[in-house]
Amino acid sequence: MQCDRLWNNARLATLTGEGLGIVDDGIVAARDGRIVYAGTAANAPTLEAAETMNCAGRWITPGLVDCHTHIVYGGNRAHEFELRLAGASYEEIARAGGGIVSTMRATRAATEDELVASALPRVDALIAEGVTTLEIKSGYGLDMPTEMKSLRAARRIGEMRPLSVKTTFLGAHALPPEAKGDKDAYIGTVSDEMLPAVAKAGLADAVDGFCEGIAFTPEQIGRVFEAAKAHGLRVKLHAEQLSNLHGASLAAHYGALSADHLEHVDEAGAKALATAGTVAVLLPGAFYFVRETHKPPVELLRQHGVKIALASDSNPGTSPLTSLLLAMNMGATLFRLTVDECLAGVTREAARALGCLDSVGTLEAGKWCDLAIWNIERPAELVYRMGFNPLHERVWRGK
Ligand code: DI6
Ligand code: FE
């Protein structure tokens, strides 16, 4: 079999099946950017490669997938962080013009070029750790021009870097000040004006919302999801982060790709997610940064066979995190996820949460050849260390 590139003498975590799918003496071969073989050297077909890379016993995993980020935004909230450390309350900061609205203002004020330029160093930090697929949400514009600008900036990042970008329209993230407290009217604008325009421009791969007391009710989110359905877009939802409004069941009802956060999900919610095949995306960076104490009920999710993914939730307010390696460590230390769950959570299950498991997320013939090659002795090292990056090489679409 002819191929462009071949990696041999590798140990593979293919992530096929349920566990890590470990192969001790492994080979990955690529042609035209896709995997043509991933498995044992012993069972490999005869491979004629233009280029052969000797991995000298290193481990190869699928390229990492960060399936939940708000990485495109203007400004940052370091000053707010300082105020909080000095004892200011969330309300005081909000009254002083801080919080999500301050990021909205900075995002509206930034040009598209400035949004791209400020996001790139953060994206590059993820890339340096082996991320090959990245989801980026809008949601800091909260008006038509800025939501569109943010999504265009996200698409451009995918053109400027060797990286697959999936964009998500999150118009229902927060209420902009000009709505003057009228959430229903704003949801009407999101559903009837912004979402159709975003869909028509082909700027979003999915639609998300924030279902919470401080954001929108299940009924309001339902209106956004109906609009998404009418435009053929899959949905996801920020659900049960601070309270249980039964957002997980709502998401499941709409066949959501994922329900995210889930600290307060109950058994009915877990069952609904399992039945719908909706992935639970856990976000330990946000849990850590806001010093949340109510953990997501991991054992309940396991009992009902809910698929679990992990993501950075990279955002300026509640998770200024640009490391999936650290997200895995936090998933294990804070939520007691196993090494296998953490690794599956940033590869196979994260791909499932983006609806692209058919093309990435595992090492299998036919998928894109997106690889992370690591200087480690065992997969647990990827979860165990804090602030150390053992990436040897990253491969996106065979290169
Ligand atoms: N969940 C959160 O915690 C935030 N957004 C979301 O959907 C807050 C984001 C911010 O404060 O900027
Ligand atoms: Fe989020």
Describe the structure.
Helices cover 37% and strands 22% of the residues. It has 399 residues and is an alpha/beta fold. The strands form two sheets. It has an eight-stranded parallel β-sheet with strand order 6-7-8-9-10-11-12-13. Strands 1, 2, 3, 4, 5, 14 and 15 form a seven-stranded mixed β-sheet that branches. β10, α8 and β11 form a beta-alpha-beta unit. The protein binds 3-[(4S)-2,5-dioxoimidazolidin-4-yl]propanoic acid (DI6) and fe (iii) ion.
- What fraction of residues sit in β-strands? 15-25%
Separation, N- and C-terminal Cα atoms: 19 Å
Radius of gyration: 21 Å
**What's the average pLDDT?**
97
Bound molecules: 3-[(4S)-2,5-dioxoimidazolidin-4-yl]propanoic acid, fe (iii) ion
Main β-sheet, in a few words? 8 strands, parallel
Which regions have little confidence, pLDDT < 50, spanning 5+ residues? Answer: none
| Order of neighbouring strands in the sheet with most strands | 6-7-8-9-10-11-12-13
Name the helicity range: 25-40%
| Category from helices, strands and their pairing | alpha/beta
Total helical segments: 15
Number-wise, the strands total: 15
Order of helices and strands: EEEEEEHHHHEHEHEHEHEHEHHEHHHEHE
Approximate shape: globular
